[in-house]
């Protein structure tokens, strides 16, 4: 009988301890929010929160009415305060050139090495070869000279 009581007690204890722990967090208030969507494909939205997040974006349809050339274009910004208390602001555009962010917090690439610049300049002087959809050269292949005359 003691084994049965122990099993029941352990089962009840396991059920109580495995209950999900819910932590209450204070909701962040939305201080302002605006949305505008137009029939021509343009839009604008913005919002600001109580924890210093601000967002704004506008967009429109480039080449509207030409299905093969229609491009959704957007530009906007967002800002917030990072966990260290530093304000962060990012502006961006997104269009046929992709997503282009700008911000002081973004890393910058190192300068291109001189050897790479020379190689790119050399490659630009070489004749271009056309390739088919499988990646094979079209027409007679040009022999590579590799610096020989």
UniProtKB/TrEMBL annotation:
It comes from the Eukaryota. The keyword Hydrolase does not apply. One of its GO terms (cellular component) is chitin-based extracellular matrix. InterPro entries: CHIT_BIND_RR_consensus (IPR031311), Cuticle_Struct_Prot (IPR050468), Insect_cuticle (IPR000618). The lineage of its organism: Eukaryota, Metazoa, Ecdysozoa, Arthropoda, Hexapoda. GO terms for molecular function: structural constituent of chitin-based larval cuticle. Residues 1-18 form the signal peptide. The keyword Signal applies. It comes from Nilaparvata lugens (Brown planthopper). Keywords: Cuticle, Signal. Pfam families: Chitin_bind_4. This is Cuticular protein.
